[in-house]
User: Fold this.
Amino acid sequence: MLEIIDVYKTFNPGTVNEKKALNGVNLKLNDGDFCTVIGGNGAGKSTTLNAIAGVWPVDSGAILIDGEDISALPEHKRAPYLGRVFQDPMTGTVADMEIIENLAIAARRGQKRGLSWGVKKSEREEYRELLKQFELGLEDRMSSKVGLLSGGQRQAITLLMATIKRPKLLLLDEHTAALDPKTAAKVLELSDKIIEENNLTALMVTHNMKDAITHGNRLIMMSDGKIVLDISGEEKKKLTVEILLQKFEKASGSTIDNDRMLLGD
Assistant:
């Protein structure tokens, strides 16, 4: 479903601020894979997601989704293939529009829009059922402005908006980092549920080693702009933070000095 082939990206080349962000990234995700991505600051995690989303062009290499080379497509033309949830709960929704209006916009992504725009009764019932699964009381607040919601509620809405059209690939970019631990756990639980029920292919960037181990069927670890570990199947099920640290040190030749990763906060 996703294939990244020898991708390189350098920011500010030829200047004192030159930064090699991606240094020959190769990754292949099969249909239905839920892959977590971990690594220290500057490892290339979010840069990889931005490369897939087309936020900027890569220097070299190719990115394929479902066998189609999207490397040359601008960001807006990749949108039909992708669903994305960002770290900031304020991103991905329209604050001064109602919950139901935000969901309707997401459901109409890629469709031609005429002058008669409104939410049908059947859609309202569908959204109500979808919101009910969150157990956050949002199904009774569909006319509330999204800007009035808590961070966790807003992130739940964004997650639903990103998956309502069943994208070929779901990108989760540290989507629980700005939430308190209890809310973060709830949003991760919802992510697992939506990905499993819709058989989505997903890539989840996280700083939290425990979350990276607990969620998904595959884990990759990045360092210095490339993938240094790729763990799946039974090996991933047996992982602990201690074992992962040992594997990382052996693969990269360095130790992790990132407190957020080690403490799992």
